[in-house]
Amino acid sequence: MTTAQTDRRTAEVLMASAIYNNAAFHLQQAAEKAMKALLREHGEREPTHSGLQLMSALERLGEAFPEGFAGDLRRLDRCFIDTRYPNGVGGPPEEFYDREMVEELFACCRRVMAYVTSRLS
User: Fold this and answer.
1) Most buried one in 29, 45, 68, 88, CB count within 10 A?
2) DSSP state letter for 65
3) Tell me: the pLDDT tens digits for 74-112?
4) What is the CA radius of gyration of the chain?
């Protein structure tokens, strides 16, 4: 979880500097790394960057996620490519992401990290 927390703090710094696309990317990374920490808690690994795929792997191991969790992961998953590549959103990612969008992604990331933290021993 330490690496996930570092990514979340990095997103805070980028948000304060109005570098919204990179903040969004680090929020996706924080959620992904949190989910991977939970998977490792179960003694498993999954070679993916998708929070949704990690969620599915964890469900097969008996994890039960709260309502809306998949939606949070879906929003964050989009940020893995779209925040970095112009062909992901049809133009420069810097022009696509804004403060309001990233604030919503922060909320998604907080919920993911809170759930994972509650499940780690």
Assistant:
1) 29
2) P
3) 999 999 999 998 887 788 999 999 999 999 999 999 999
4) 14
